[in-house]
Task: inverse folding
């Protein structure tokens, strides 16, 4: 930044500060937003609080989000819910969207029908993250009307500046998924995204998942938001009883796989591992992939629904899951034999009440040209990658002890690349919402 630009910036902030001194809620909100853009989050939280206390709904939402994630203030999810409820009471569909997101965890709010109601309201107000989540929801369904709804919602999201909705839409237009193929429209979307530094997704295709079992109230009519479908545990195939190793096919749709890759791509870095002796995280030849741990701040409702679906496939709760990690393995890269349970000192340093990593679930996100299998040497099990396929395994014995036989490896990718999403599931609740 040049000296002149810095002065301009200081002048702008000074003017906003002067306006905020009036105590007018909207001026306080604008000043807080400018502070966030400059990384001054503690001051921003204070001014969002002031504006929210004066009845500014958007400030209440932003202050709630800071409370939820401990940004600029101590984390307090229950207080965050209170502020969101205040904002929802003032008619904010964005507050309702975040309440729905929190409700998926079934901790701070019950996981009930209010999730669908709040999401419908947010969709009707064209809130982009809600449009994206609803589109992906309908995109899992085989009904032609639902597939068409998916396309319309992605178009609305892309039209409102959502790059991930635009990426998902381009892939569907290019392949004729849910619509007739429209190569020119897809190429135009990719061109516009490239101008903003958004790269194309890797090749990801997958068959539609099997239909969800009907609810007690009957079949879900087309066009119905019913996010509780993610709670239905997908059937698995048992490969080994000791150690327990299971496989779940067609768990995720192509849209859901693409969503996780699109979210992770900007944050990829060389993978690190926890040293079993020191407990420190470092980069070693044991694991030569790149990965992106998804910070909870980045989690939208669509990504939370996918994680809920993954956790339930492992017969666990979303609250037990550590934060999602997405990995990319390029030719020659691998994860040599290792175990997922953590050293005691690591457990004690990171939410000890959650216990250790009792179970792991990994989901392949794309087709690998050659190699990239997940191997369990002790039972002699090797599972090949397939888009949307999950591998579930226990890190503990039935007696509740770390299981050395859970040794496993990510075999080298010989051609193409492998994208993988992993949730490590603790013995008890790890997340706070």
Result:
């Amino acid at each position: 930044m040049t000296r002149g630009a810095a002065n301009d910036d200081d002048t702008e902030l000074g003017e906003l500060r002067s306006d905020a001194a009036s105590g007018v809620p909207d001026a306080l909100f604008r000043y807080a937003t400018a502070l966030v853009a400059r990384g001054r989050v503690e001051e921003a939280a204070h001014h969002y609080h002031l504006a929210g206390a004066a009845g500014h709904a958007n400030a209440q939402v932003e202050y709630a989000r800071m409370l939820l994630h401990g940004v600029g203030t101590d984390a307090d999810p229950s207080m965050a819910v209170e502020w969101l409820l205040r904002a929802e009471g003032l008619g904010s569909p964005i507050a309702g969207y975040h309440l729905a997101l929190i409700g998926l965890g079934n901790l701070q709010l019950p996981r009930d029908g209010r999730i669908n109601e709040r999401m419908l309201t947010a969709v009707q107000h064209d809130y982009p993250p809600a449009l994206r989540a609803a589109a992906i929801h309908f995109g899992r369904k085989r009904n032609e009307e639902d597939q068409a709804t998916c396309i319309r919602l992605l178009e609305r999201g892309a039209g409102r500046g959502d790059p991930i909705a635009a990426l998902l839409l381009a892939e569907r237009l290019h392949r004729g998924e849910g619509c007739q193929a429209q190569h020119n429209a897809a190429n135009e979307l990719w061109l516009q995204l490239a101008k903003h530094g958004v790269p194309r997704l890797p090749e990801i295709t997958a068959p539609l998942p099997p239909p969800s079992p009907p609810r007690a109230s009957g079949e879900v009519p087309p066009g119905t938001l019913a996010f509780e479908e993610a709670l239905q545990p997908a059937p698995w195939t048992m490969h080994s009883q000791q150690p327990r190793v299971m496989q779940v096919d067609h768990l995720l749709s192509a849209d859901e796989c693409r969503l996780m890759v699109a979210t992770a791509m900007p944050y990829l870095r060389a993978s690190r591992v926890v040293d079993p002796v020191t407990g420190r995280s470092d980069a070693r030849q044991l694991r030569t992939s790149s990965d992106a741990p998804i910070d909870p701040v980045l989690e939208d409702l669509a990504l939370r629904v996918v994680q809920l679906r993954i956790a339930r496939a492992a017969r666990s709760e979303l609250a037990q899951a550590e934060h999602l990690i997405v990995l990319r393995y390029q030719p020659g890269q691998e994860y040599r034999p290792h175990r997922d349970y953590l050293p005691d000192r690591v457990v004690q340093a990171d939410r000890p009440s959650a216990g250790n990593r009792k179970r792991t679930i990994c989901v392949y996100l794309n087709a690998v040209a050659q190699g990239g299998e997940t191997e369990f040497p002790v039972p002699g099990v090797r599972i090949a990658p397939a888009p949307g396929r999950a591998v579930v395994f226990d890190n503990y014995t039935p007696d509740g002890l770390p299981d050395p036989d859970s040794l496993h490896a990510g075999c080298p990718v010989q051609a193409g690349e492998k994208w993988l999403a992993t949730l490590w599931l603790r013995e008890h609740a790890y997340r706070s919402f």
Summary: Residues 1-6 have pLDDT under 50 and may be disordered.
